[in-house]
Amino acid sequence: MDMEYIILGAKGFLGNYLHSYFKKSNKIKFRLLYKPLFNICDSTTYSQLLLKKKLLIFDTINVNNGDKYDIENVNVRAQKHFIDWLNTNNIDYHYIYFSTLSTLKISEHLSNDYIVSKYKGENYVKKKCKAYTIIRLSFLFGTGENKNRLFSRIINNLKSGQDITIDDVCLNLTPVKELKNILNNDEFLKYREINFIDGVHYNLQELVLMIIEKLKSSASKVNFTGKKIDLTFNQSFFADGYTFKVREALEQMIEQAQDNL
Question: At the fourth CATH level, which superfamily is domain 1-137?
């Protein structure tokens, strides 16, 4: 079947990775949609999708800026409006929605506006999309990410000699490039839901010590607190049996930071 890949939010961290990945294949036809060309909050831009062929829509759009109105407006209201528009216009599509594993523990995160918005988004996809795949990710990181994301922020702060405080957080990590293990599976579209994780737990304080060693930075004052936070998942997930190269991905980020000195 003739199919075109559409990446919504193509200028973001995840969207940019998908762009780089699909670009390597001459067989895949894809388009990148991002502001102002496409704005999920502005239905006048939706006409960019009016095609006769089947669309494989990768929705990487999300807002997590701490503003409750912005989060609800983009991640919930605009997403619902967009899916309704697809259905009203009888567009043949398969909707791939990127979410977070934290929605599986939604009762523990009811005060987190972002996680609640992704939970609502998942439910609307399940309710309204005839063909869909929900991909739930653990903490996603890697080179090319926004400077305000966790590891980029820590690396840059240590590199510049700023003081930081690190809680004793235990979490699951996924280098963004490991998504290829999903996308390389030709049958991944047969899954309605994919929970992507290798089950390995990492301690944030230990990883910060690794970053300090690799940066050879001693100018910063690092305060390790005793506050323990467990963000791990212990079930069997899609990548069961495959271990992600987390430390290698972190080393690449550190090398990139050093190159920018």
Answer: NAD(P)-binding Rossmann-like Domain (3.40.50.720)
256, 143 contact by CB (below 8 A): yes
Q: What token pair was written down for 28?
A: 């895949």
Q: How far apart are CA 109 and CA 114, in angstroms?
A: 9
**How do residues 217-229 score in pLDDT, each as one tens digit?**
667 789 999 999 9
The overall pTM is greater than 0.85: yes
In the chain, where the domains are located: 1-137
Judge whether 166 and 107 are in contact, CB under 8 Å: no
Helix axes 150-159, 204-215, angle to 10 degrees: 40
| The amino acid at 202 | Y
> And the tokens for 34?
């991002």
Exposure string over 16-35, b if 16+ CB within 10 A, otherwise e? bbbbebbeeeeeeebbbbbe
Q: How many helices and strands in the chain, by DSSP H and E?
A: 8, 11
164-191 pLDDT per residue, tens = 999 999 999 999 999 998 988 778 899 9
CA separation, residue 182 to residues 7, 20, 127, 193, 256 (Å): 16, 15, 24, 12, 26
Report CA 243 to chain centroid distance, whole Å: 19
